[in-house]
Design a protein that fits this description.
It is a single chain. With 237 residues, the chain is of the alpha/beta class. It has 2 domains: 1-17 and 68-101 and 164-237, Rossmann fold (3-Layer(aba) Sandwich); 24-65 and 103-157. It has helices at residues 36-39, 42-47, 49-59, 70-74, 88-91, 132-139, 170-179, 193-205, 231-234, and strands at 3-7, 79-82, 98-99, 102-109, 119-121, 153-157, 182-186, 208-212, 224-227. The chain has a 6-stranded parallel sheet with strand order 3-2-1-7-8-9, covered by helices on one side. A 3-stranded antiparallel sheet has the order 5-4-6, with no helix packed on it. Helix 3 packs across helix 6. It is globular. It starts with a strand and ends with a helix. Keywords: NAD, Transferase. Its EC number is 2.3.1.286. This is protein acetyllysine N-acetyltransferase.
Length: 237
């Protein structure tokens, strides 16, 4: 059977990385002046890059040294699309997974969406945490007028007001969905577009779906099996 696994933040919780909507979640805690939904936008990066980069660094990049857990290891030889940007699936040995929302250890040039652009290693080792905002602006080549197209850097992350492009492997992701005989969703709240795209394809192709989560989101589809448990229990069945 050609099984496709689609994972969310719940998979990385056992690695000490907060989920998105829990008490200490990424989308629960914002900056002093903005909510996370306001912070994680291209508009914020363009108009207040220092605030954006400081928030992104504190809420995501500080977890860059965390290691994979046994669920990541179990997924290492599976066909996988992850919504997580932590890179832990790669650390666990999966060589061909899709990180559909980007990765914290990568950057690109700031570019118009849809343009072809290279993905490079993020220069987080250069950051001076004692002078965080100024240091980040300098490293990301951002002057007083904000980020410049094809000159400044941008974290390799898909923001709320951006759309899926082939920079994030959306074409290959959809091909994997279309080819699947079964989809297994692990640790996701189904609150982002990629899960809705996958569910629409599952419904269209009448394929089996499994939902794995301690508090699984129920979806409108008659071929769903729910596993109300952590991913660590699911893989040990």
């Amino acid at each position: 059977m050609n099984t496709l696994y689609i994972t969310g933040a719940g998979v990385s919780a056992q690695s000490g990385i907060p989920t998105f909507r829990g008490e200490d979640g990424f989308w629960t805690i914002g900056s002093r002046n903005y909510t996370p939904q306001q912070m994680a936008t291209r508009a914020m990066y363009e108009h207040n890059p220092g605030e954006f980069l400081s928030w992104y660094y504190k809420r995501f990049v500080t977890y860059r040294e965390h290691g994979p857990n046994k669920v990541h290891t179990w997924l290492a030889d599976k066909k996988l699309i992850t919504q997580n940007i932590d890179g832990l699936d790669g650390k666990a040995g999966n060589k061909d997974y899709i990180s559909i929302h980007g990765r914290i250890d990568k950057v690109t040039l700031f570019h118009d969406q849809g343009d072809k652009v290279a993905i490079g290693s993020a220069p987080w080792h250069e950051v001076d945490e004692n002078n965080l905002k100024a240091s980040l602006l300098d490293i990301f080549k951002i002057g007083q007028f904000g980020p410049e197209l094809n000159k400044s850097l941008k974290p390799y992350v898909l923001l709320f007001d951006e759309y899926y492009t082939d920079l994030y492997d959306i074409g290959r992701a959809q091909e994997m969905m279309m080819a699947a005989d079964k989809m297994v969703f692990i640790g996701t709240s189904f609150s982002v577009n990629i899960t809705q795209i996958a569910l629409e394809i599952a419904r269209h192709n009448h394929i089996e779906v499994e939902v794995v989560d301690p508090d699984p989101t129920h979806i409108m589809y008659d071929k769903v099996t729910y596993f109300a448990m952590p991913a660590s229990r699911y893989i040990e069945r």
